[in-house]
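Record format v2
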Amino acid sequence: MKKKLDSFSKPQKGVPTIAPSVFAKRVYAVVAKIPKGKTMTYKQVAEKAGNPAAARAVGTLMSHNYDPKIPCHRVVRSDGKIGNYNRGGPAKKFELLMMEGYRV
DNA sequence: TAGCTGACGCAAA
DNA sequence: ATTTGCGCCAGCT
């Protein structure tokens, strides 16, 4: 009994892993640093990542990122809206934010 | 290499 | 206050 996890241990090519770009790593680091109960806008994350105008790029990276270490649900839009979510849609994101203490 | 798309942002109407 | 258009960068075909 030592197999089974084989397919789970190795990197699956079917996973939409994003390119290991420098900017991407910056974004991941910033998002991972977001404190619980707080929310950052894509613009803020982009700015911290080093590109204040790469808000779109941040969203693109998040959409391709499925890493649980990246609480992308804490990243919201500057309009005050929640934005999108690749793990169940904006509804799930809304629940998570409320669960963590997000208030309008 | 060039073009299109996209979890955004902001300005103008 | 809401809707439309344009610009932005990164990634994919």
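Chain A is about 40% helix and 5% strand.
The helical segments of chain A are 6-9, 22-32, 42-49, 55-64, 90-100.
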